[in-house]
Amino acid sequence: MANSWRRERWDSLRLLTPNWLSRLPGLRYEGPDADGYMTVEEVTEFIVRFAAASRAPVRTGTNVTSVRRTDDGYQLATTRGEIRCRAVVIASGACNKPSVPSVSAGVPASVEQLTPFDYRHPAKLPDGGVLVVGASATGVQLAAELQRSGRPVTLSVGEHVRLPRKYRGRDVLWWMNASGVWDQRYDEVEDLTRARRLPSPQLVGTPERTTLDLNALAAIGVELVGRWAAVRDGHALFSGGLRNVFSLADLKLQRLLDTFDEWAKTSGDDAEVDPPERSAPTRVPESTRLQLDLRSGEIRSIVWATGFRPDYGWLDVPVVDAKGQLRHEGGVVDSPGLYALGLPVLRRRKSTFICGIEDDAREVIDRLARDLTVRR
Predict the structure, then answer these.
(1) pLDDT 10s digit of each residue in the chain, 376 long?
(2) Contact present, 80 and 59 (Cβ < 8 Å)
(3) Residue 209 region, left (φ>0) first, then alpha (ψ -120 to 50), else beta?
(4) Which of 127, 292, 302, 303 holds its CA 20 to 30 A away from the CA of 103?
(5) pLDDT at residue 6, rounded to an integer
(6) Domain-terminating residue out of 271, 292, 308
(7) Which residues lie closer than 8 Å to 368 by C-beta, 6 or more apart?
(8) Are both 208 and 354 inside the same structural domain?
(9) Same structural domain for residues 267 and 121?
(10) Both 321 and 292 in a single domain?
(11) Residue 264 belongs to what H/E stretch?
């Protein structure tokens, strides 16, 4: 159980959601720190407890190697024999493989390259400077940890989602939950394709409940550069326009905070929280490097925090698009009897969070049951 949390997470990682939001059917956090954030070990233990409490007939230690369509359903090949069934629910997640851009091929061999799946803690990296590529949740967390370890860190920044850890005295995810933003359905989202591809917000779960945005990183000495555009003659080339990237993220943040404020007024909760507040704009560096000589020894390692992608190499059914994404409508896949759970904005904005899976699962399984009844 919880294999990815056991084997594919760095040592200091904590959930981004506060403990009081950690809930599954019949199980919720009952520890002493409801406003804290679970560690890797605690998340693993939580999932193991759910497996025991649910008593689901799960076959552990069994890998599915292929899923094929048959006349009356599907045939699964596994490492412990074959399974025939009328329906399949794909719940393998959206983050099975790190997504590393093709420019990585031009990095000199003297620079060590790794992904968040490889990273465990700073001591595992060579001495010297680190270039972290990507400024979403993973990138900002690793940049902060590496900088505090004494290594000079450069962070390559592209599109990102900025969020404060707390707003008006409450965790920002309390606002997402209470205001209904997280409950927005997939068929209500204006640009669903874009919503499903948005980077994870710049958040970190720490006992101090601190905000970890680009201003905080710059304050501890992290150097900010633009999006990595190319490698030429051993030089990493970065795009300009950080000001525009920062302004867009700041604008989206202000719109979201306005949504929270309006909800607080209309719901009658305005007096129950602190007064409205606004974050300072993201500070643009006075000067920004547009290239780094990767052969100079200044950068000894690169961490590719450039996102993740699903792995459907075992799925022998033509339901994956040219970008490797599953074709589905709210979890109903484009093949009779095939369904999905746990993908971004599957049925709601909260679909990929532990607290969001139950509502999606109930609706998808209800649809599955109706479909099976019709097909009898």
Answers:
(1) 577 888 889 999 999 999 999 999 989 998 899 999 999 999 999 999 998 888 888 888 899 999 999 999 999 999 999 999 999 999 999 999 999 999 999 999 999 999 999 999 999 999 999 999 999 999 999 999 999 999 999 999 999 999 999 999 999 999 999 999 999 999 999 999 999 999 999 999 999 999 999 999 999 999 999 999 999 999 999 999 999 999 999 999 999 999 999 999 999 999 999 999 999 999 999 999 999 999 999 999 999 999 999 999 999 999 999 999 999 999 999 999 999 999 999 999 999 999 999 999 999 999 999 999 986 6
(2) yes
(3) left
(4) 127
(5) 81
(6) 308
(7) 87, 89, 339
(8) no
(9) yes
(10) no
(11) helix 242-267
- Quick one: which of 129, 133, 135, 132 has its CA closest to 150? 129
Q: What CATH number has the domain bearing residue 144?
A: 3.50.50.60
Which candidate, 18, 15, 13, 16, places its Cα nearest to that of 35? 18
Rounded Cα–Cα distance for residues 151 and 323 (Å): 36
Place of tokens 């560690």: 39
Task: Specify whether 81 is located in the same domain as 184.
Answer: no
Closest CA to 95 of 176, 228, 199, 172: 199
Q: How far is CA 161 from CA 133, 134, 165, 342, 376, in A?
A: 15, 12, 13, 21, 47
- Same domain membership, residue 44 and residue 7: yes
Q: How many CB atoms lie within 10 A of CB 91?
A: 14
Give the total number of structural domains in the chain: 2
Whether 303 contacts 132, CB under 8 Å:
yes
- Among 308, 329, 359, where does a domain finish? 308
Residues in the chain: 376
Closest to 37 (Cα-Cα) out of 284, 235, 228, 204:
204
Q: In angstroms, how far is CA 254 from the centroid of its own chain?
A: 22
Task: Give the per-residue pLDDT at 376.
Answer: 65
Supply the range of the domain harboring residue 276.
98-308
SS3 state at 247: helix
Evaluate the CA torsion angle 322, 324, 327, 333 in order and state its sign: positive
**Token pair in block for residue 237:** 């080339």
Dihedral sign for Cα atoms in the order 244, 169, 351, 56: positive
Structure tokens at 297: 């020894």
